[in-house]
Structures are given as C-alpha cells and as structure tokens.
Specification:
This protein is α/β, with parallel strands linked by helices. It has 21 helices and 15 strands. The strands form three sheets. Strands 1-5-4-3-2 form a five-stranded mixed sheet, with helices on both faces.
C-alpha cells in the first residue's frame, strides 16, 4: 500500500509523517520490528531489507549510523520508511534519512510497539485497500475491518473502533479533536481508564456484549463520551469474536446508527472469521516457497518480501504427527509450537503448515549437525510439553531457495516411507534414509499392481492361518540373517532343526528354491510388501 494510505489508516492519534523525501506515494509491502541487536544483521550486504522498519529503543546516534550503512546499498535495496519514537525530531536523523530517501514517521511516545506492529501487518495483509468513496456500502464483499470502520463512521456518525474478544483494537476509523481519552488510549494499545472500565463492568456492559446481539447504549460518564456498542459473534456457533464501539463526536449520532451497528456486526463477523480461517499474505508466500500452490514462484521477489537471502545453503525440516488421524487442534498446536521454537532457534526461520504436516526453513544454516541435534531436541520437547508424538525428516543442505519446494517433496517421501518404522526412525535425514525411501517406494509400486503379487505366497499365508504356523516369520528371519540357520533360530528362540524343518515345509508349499539367489530376492520383496501392507491402517 502507499505510505500515505498507511499513515492515514493509522491516524494522527498514533503517528505523524515528519518527512517523505520520495513523496508519500511510495509503496510498502513488508515490515520489520527491530531493536539495537538487530540493526547490524539488517545491513548485511545483499541481504534483503524490509520496506518499513519499526525501531524500538534505538538511540539517535545509533539510528543515524544505521542510515549511513544503508546509504551504501543500491537505492532499490533500501528501506522506504522508518517509524520511531526517539529519533523523529532529530535534525541529524532527518538529514541522514533524506540522503538515503527514507521517510520518517513519528510514533506517539505512549504507543505500544506490540500494538503498532500487528496493526501494520494487518494493513499490509489486506487484499484490497479500503476506499473512502461515498458510494461504498456496508455490503461490499471486499471490505476489510479498516474499511468497515470508516463506512460505519460515515453512515452512523462518530468515531469507530473494532476490537477482538480480548479488547485489543483491530481497526478504527479516523479520529478528530473530539476523541476522548478512552479512544486515544485504546488506539495507543493502552488499557482504558480503570475507573471507567469499572463502571462498565458494574453496568454489565461486557456481559451483555458477550451474551446478546443487542446494541448497547452507554451514557457519557466522567470525561468519557456517549457510546454505542455491539458484540461480534461467529456465524454458526455464536462464539464471541469481539465488539464494535461507536464514540459520539462533536455532533450526535445519525438516525439509524443502532441499525448500522447491528448490520456492521454481521459483516465484521464474516471478515474476522475469514481472516482467522485464511492464511495471511506472508503465510501464502511461505507456502508458495514450499511449493504448496504449484510451480512458477518468483523466488527473488518472495525472498525480498520475506526478508531472507536467495542464495546460500538452507535446511528444510518436515514434521508429521504420529498415531490416529490428527485433529484440527493437534495440527494448529503443532504449527504454533513449531513457529515459536524455530523463531527462538533462528530469527530468520520460516515455518508453515500444509495439510497435516508442518515444515521449517532455516536459511543460511551453519551446521548440519546442529540442525539435526536441534530437531531431535525439538521433537522430545514437544512430546513432553504437549503430548504430540512427531516424526521429522531433514533435507540438508538445500543449495538455495529455488530448491526448497523440491526439498519439501523429498522430505515428504522420507516421512511417507518411515510411517511404518516408527519409532526407530523418529528423526532422520534424506541421506540416512535413502535406502528406506527407495525400497519403500518400490514396495508401494508392487503393492499397487496385483499382477506383480506372487500367488505362491498366498498358499503360504493361508497355511499359517489354518495351522497356526509361523512359516512367514521363519522365512523373514532366515533371509534377514543372510541364510545363517543358527542365528535365525536364536532370534526365533527355536532349535536349528526346527528351523530347517520349517524351511523345507515352506519350500514344499510355495515351490520356491531358497538356494536360488533370484528366488530369495523375489521372496524377500514379496514378504516385505506383505508386511508393509498389513502394517498400514
């Protein structure tokens, strides 16, 4: 979106555009939240940089020095905007920003960064920017929460804020001088005045928002102005998604304001549900990088948007839940847990969930041994903390980002092939499991083609069933011990002569010659195919 639209949506309560050397029409697509420890890594040569930087606790001198390092990069590889609380009024900082063509936006000193950052992320994730045109209506299919807030304000009068179920502001309309301190503190990410919140609690406002669909009239109290409020409920199950608050401005609410709010509640419910169910723009980019949406991904553009290097070795790790069919809650828990753990291990890691499996990308990994050790530790920690039983497969090294999608397919091959050998193959790499993968796929090909099934083995299996015999196990152990009768007999805990008798009986039933190398190879493949089929649900 354009810088002008971003600043306008955030509003003058929260931000002020100080200087825009390239104009306020510059487009921004990505955002990063950084502190002092992050600045050095953000200017590494050729490493992509985000368009917007939110500088947290960074002193003026340090911010100026960072802009000097940014100046050494090509103009197209520089950030577009810096949001700061401390350096915006500094002449030295503004001059340095002007030299490199970076806009400066001042953030209110009392604003919470953990509130500002997700607000901007939500704006950048919008598929269509809200339009302030007069002909826009409440039924616009592409309206988002910021656009909806503005539309409510236009049709009902006053100033609108839309909050989630925990009273965190998701979106709001433009403010003016009539905004009271409740609205200002909400937009800044701060808790409202406690004395006023206590009154709302006593009046039962929050309980009514959770329990009913009615529009609640909240009279002016203390220095807090008159409000209307309505709950937002998920369609279908009536669970609470949030609320809409309309503060009266300099003029009374327009006629029909309550009806506007009631209709807006239904639209907000659909928008929030859609956003909860659908992946964000960043999530879609990550999934495209992993090849989830077909070929043809522009890897350099995706890497630039995600702020990761295109070249250099990487590691791809796939995770599969083990046991019965995983529930939606299991899958969500897995995805969230992996994102947190991966972010703690490597700040530039990317994680996503595709179907029942989850994947992690570690750009510029330093040690294959360290990645493998971390993965084993992660699997153990998740089992201990959440009772999730996982298998993991590691593709390492992956030469560059263009090979990530192919690496994910290889990881899936490993996870497919190790499904019947768990827990022996809890964590493995492509190199370690190559034999198992290829053999498993050969067995699957044989299983899928009935004409390749040896009918002689059917007689053997029928004999075992009707006579409670163990000829299949006997042959399996004999082949596994390379024809060593004593070793196979020891493994089966029987006398060698008993083993010899069983082998002769098996040969009589099947007509297979155990002294023939070709017969032995075919028999081992057929027995393995049978065990693999029986082991699968």
């Amino acid at each position: 979106m354009a810088l002008r639209d971003l600043v306008g949506a955030l509003g003058t309560t929260l931000v002020e555009l100080i200087h825009a050397p390239l104009g306020d029409e510059v487009l921004v697509r990505s955002v990063a939240l950084v502190d002092s420890s992050d600045l050095a890594s953000e200017t590494v040569a050729n490493a992509p940089m985000s368009d917007i930087y939110l500088q947290v606790g960074i002193a003026e001198a340090e911010a100026v020095r960072w802009l000097g390092e940014v100046e050494s990069r090509a103009p197209g590889q520089r950030p577009r905007v810096v949001l700061t609380k401390t350096a915006a009024e500094s002449d030295a900082f503004q001059q340095a920003a002007a030299r490199v063509g970076v806009a400066v936006v001042a953030v209110h000193p009392r604003a919470r960064w953990d509130h500002v950052y997700p607000l901007i992320r939500r704006m950048l994730d919008r598929t269509d920017r809200a339009r302030d045109s007069a002909d826009q209506d409440l039924l616009g299919a592409d309206t988002d929460l910021f656009g909806l807030a503005q539309i409510i304000a236009q049709n009902a009068g006053g100033m609108v804020s839309i909050e989630d179920a925990r009273s965190h502001v998701l979106a709001y309309s433009a403010s003016n001088e009539a905004a009271d301190r409740m609205r200002i503190q909400s937009i800044l990410g701060r808790e409202g005045p406690r004395d006023y919140l206590r009154i709302l609690q006593q009046w039962g406002v929050f309980d009514r928002l959770r329990q009913t669909d009615e529009v609640i009239d909240v009279p002016a109290q203390l220095d807090i102005k008159h409000r209307l409020a309505v709950g937002i409920r998920r369609p279908g199950d009536d669970s609470v998604l949030g609320s809409i608050w309309l503060q009266e401005g300099e003029q009374p609410f327009k006629p029909g304001a309550a009806e506007v709010l009631r209709g807006a509640s239904a639209i907000a419910a659909r928008i929030i549900t859609r956003s909860l169910d659908a992946p964000s723009t960043e999530a879609l980019l990550i999934q495209r990088l992993f090849g989830a949406h077909g070929d043809g991904v522009d890897v350099p553009s995706v890497a630039g948007a995600l702020g990761i290097p295109v070249t250099g070795p990487a590691a791809v790790i796939g995770f599969a839940l083990t046991g019965d069919t995983p529930t939606a809650r299991d899958r969500d828990t897995l995805g969230s847990a992996l994102r947190l753990r991966a972010g703690a291990f490597r700040r530039d890691s990317l994680a996503t969930r595709i179907g029942d499996r989850a994947y992690i990308l570690l750009p510029r990994y330093q040690s294959a041994r360290a990645v493998t050790a971390w993965t084993r530790q992660l699997v153990e920690q998740l089992e201990s903390a959440s009772a999730l039983i996982l298998r993991a497969a590691i593709a390492i090294p992956v030469p560059d980002l263009a090979a990530v999608a192919r690496a994910r397919l290889e990881v899936d091959r490993v996870l497919d092939s190790t499904a019947t050998t768990f827990p022996r193959d809890r964590v493995t790499t492509l190199a370690e499991s190559r034999t198992a993968v290829l053999l498993g796929e050969i067995l699957d090909l044989i299983a899928a083609r009935p004409e390749l099934h040896d009918p002689r083995l059917t007689a053997l299996f029928d004999y075992d069933t009707s006579h409670a015999a163990q000829l299949e196990d006997t042959l399996t152990h004999y082949l596994r011990h390379h024809g060593d009768v004593r070793a196979a007999a020891t493994a089966l805990n029987i006398h060698p002569n008993t083993l010899r008798y069983r082998l002769r009986r098996a040969q009589d039933i099947t007509g297979i010659d155990l002294d023939d190398p070709a017969d032995r190879l075919l028999l081992e493949l057929q027995l393995s195919r049978h065990r693999r089929t029986v082991a699968r649900p």
